[in-house]
TrEMBL record:
It comes from SAR86 cluster bacterium. Coiled coil: none annotated. InterPro entries: Glutaredoxin (IPR002109), Glutathione_S-Trfase_N (IPR004045), Grx-like_ET (IPR051548), Thioredoxin-like_sf (IPR036249). Residues 1-74 form the GST N-terminal domain. This is Glutathione S-transferase N-terminal domain-containing protein.
């Protein structure tokens, strides 16, 4: 299952969710602006990424929106 680390005001996060929904791919969304625990979880998954979305698939880092789009469209 995909996991999207996002914020409520992130346009690329919305695009990622729409892309997954359009392809009937299940996902879980984790808001990193709601708790320090969620933010720290995201930083452990992707310590070098500076922006959201941070997207994983079954615990493995996919990347951001463009990496997700490349993977889904492949």
């Amino acid at each position: 299952m995909y996991k999207i680390y996002s914020t409520k005001s992130c346009g690329y996060c919305e695009r990622a969710k729409s892309l997954l929904a359009a392809n009937n791919l299940p996902f879980e969304e984790v808001y990193v602006d709601e708790s320090a625990e969620n933010f720290n979880e995201m930083k452990n998954v992707a310590p070098n990424m500076k922006t959201v979305p941070v997207i994983t698939l079954n615990g493995l880092l996919v990347g951001g929106f463009y990496e997700l789009k490349e993977k889904v469209d492949a």
